[in-house]
Each structure stands twice: as C-alpha cells, then as structure tokens.
Amino acid sequence: MQIFKNIAAIVIIGIGFHSWAQQTPAPTQSETILLQGATIHVGDGTVIENGAIVFENGTIVSVGGPTTIKQGRVIDVTGKHIYPGFIAPVSTLGLGEIDAVRPTLDEDEIGEFIPNIRSLIAYNAESKVVESMRPNGVLLAQIAPQGGAISGTSSIVQLDAWNWEDAAVKVDDGIHIHWPNTFRRGRWWVGEERGWKPNNDYPKDTEAFTRYFANAQAYGKTNSTSENEGFKAMQGLFDGSKRLYLYAQGEKEIIDGVTACKNAGVQQVVLVGGYEAYKIIPFLKQHHVSVIANRVHTTPNSDDDDYDLPYKLPKLLTDGGLLVSLDALGQMERMNTRNLPFYAGQVVGQGMDKEEALKLITSNAAKILGIDDRYGTLEVGKSATLFVCDGDALDMRTNLLSHAFIDGREISLETHQTRLWHRYAKKYGQE
After folding, report:
1. How many domains, the chain?
2. I need a surface site. Which of 2, 60, 139, 234 has the fewest CB within 10 A?
3. Are strands 290-293 and 324-326 parallel, antiparallel or unpaired?
C-alpha cells in the first residue's frame, strides 16, 4: 500500500511540475509603438519593403513606408520581417498536457452526440504546450473538442492569458462533427480480419446524424418548455451564427456529409481534412464550402495515391478556387502545431507562391474562422497581433522571432524549451 502511495505522490508532483505556469501574460499596451525598417508581409499577398507599422491601444493605426511618431517607443527592425500572428485552426492546445496521464487530457467527453460540450471552459491558458507555440509565430488558435460523432463546441483564443476568460477571442464559434466512414478497420479483438473492410453500418450511422439534425431544427421551431442542451447548442448552425466543422476524408463521405448538413438547414459548412476534396471541387464551390486541410507532413492514405498528394493538396484546392487553410491534426497534434508555418512552407515547395502560402495560416484561416474583422492581416483598424522575424517565417532555418505582440501587448518568447536550450548551450560553451 505504501508503494502505491509513493507512486501517486510522484505522479502528482510530476503533474504539478509539468503544469508549472508559463511566462506572466503581458500587460495592456500603454504607449504607442513604431516598428520601423522591416519587410512587411500584410497577409493578403501584399509585401511592403522598408515598411513601418504603428499601433496603439492594441490596434494598428498606420501601415506603410517610413514614418515617425511624436511620442512612444520606436523599435528599429531594419532587415527583418513582420508577419501577422499565425492562426491554428482545429487544435486541442490547452486541452491536454501529458498524453500518458489521463487526468491531464480534456480533449473529448463521454457521449456521441454532445454539441453542448464547450471546449473553452476546459482550456488551460497556462499550459506549457501552449507556451511553446509562440516562438514560432503561432499566436491564435481554435480550441476544438474531439471524439464522438458530434464532439462539441469550439472557441478561438489568443495564446497569452491568465485564464480562458482572458484568452477568449471568439466564444462558441462552431460545432465539430465526425462524419461516419464507408470503410472501417477489422476488429481483430472480436475475430475479424485486420485491414480495411466495408462499413455495413454506414447507412445506419448517417441516418443517426440526419435524425439528430432534424430533431434539433424542430426543437428550435417549437415553444417547448423542456430543456435540451444539445439541441439548444445546435441552433446557431441554422441561423448562421455558428459554423459547422465537418470532418470527412473520402469523396463519398464528403458529398454525403455536406449534402446532409445543407439539407438540414446548416448555413455555413467548413470541411476539415478533405483528403479527396480535390476530386469534387465544383461540388464544394457550389455549396460554398471552405477547407481546412490536415497537416502536409504525412504519407498518402492509399497505395494508389500520388506519393506527394498530402504535400500538394492545399495547392490543388487553392488553384481550384476554394478558400483553404491548414491545421496540424494527426499524431502528436498538439506538439506539431508549432510546425504550422513549416507546413505552409512545404506547400511553397509544391509550387505555391510564398505569399499565397502565408495566407493559408493568416488571412484565409481568419476568414474561415470568422475573425477576419480583427485578425489575419496587418491593416489599419485591425488588432496588432503580429511578430518580427529575422528571416522567412515559413522556413525553419530562419524562423527566429525577436518580438511578438498580441493585441499590442509585447509577449515573452521564453519557454521551458528555450530555458533548457540556454542552460545546455552554456554547459557546452555554445553561448
């Protein structure tokens, strides 16, 4: 018994150490700031050489050529580059800390149809994982629940806050659903052969979705005095105040899912993943569906696919006229989110213009998430959420930040990883 008590104590201490608070969130901007002399990447495809940005009270007031201010702080960033803060859609940042310790994981909840589950209230603003995103320029994220058929409701946060209330940028922006697959893996534990096989339950599974949507829509049209939290959460999909994020990969699943959602009265559908979306671009354009493509650093799903299909998928969709963004979903998604700019850089290697690739994680992401009135580009009147980089932010060799700001607040770029880097660099005489 004493051994178990000791193990429990060690686990608790380990969790406490791992969740040790991040850098103290920056105070509200108190003086006008001028960034002078850098190349400005606006985020909409525009590039301004030897540019200057002035912001005050968290808002950009001037973007253009060299300028001056009467009073405030002037930062010379000559020879460097200024970018809008990168935006990570469909992320579980702050919902999980240690994969091997179940009590630290809050990315999913018990149940299949639970649209009323809100990810925001589980978001840990002091997560070490969240902290480690900022030195690569990822300053905003959509915190999305996972698991089940209808996973719950996401919210969008900025990554420098004391708590989820302070972090919130857009509350309850959308509902996430995982459309059934037409194929499934054999359940070896019940004697089935391993490998993929047709999902005979597909019609029944899809019917469950359509029935739930129909019931939710009917609930909203009645004056029922009974409370159904799930149906209440769905109402924003029908009046357009919420987006529906549809997770589907195959051509048939995408067509079935989009058709069912549109027929149910859903106003705005965003496709997440869309591995075979390039085959049905006209269909997606017809239904005004934008796409959040999964991370490009992965292998093809099928032996018949082009070896570089995951790499070039965002370009294929963009060339087809769709609004496209990128996420980091996949194995070790929370850690891989820091590589978001390099995923965009990978698409440049597939022939996409560099400024167009930048839009995948700035202006396009902001438009898809519905926050483009304040974020995604460096324009007068928008939030001063941006960073200064020594070189090309889409290249891991030159993605070296010197300054970063969220709503005009200059945030710390120090993390537990940079502390370890400095510690061992000194040990081996590299600093």
Report:
1. 2
2. 2
3. parallel
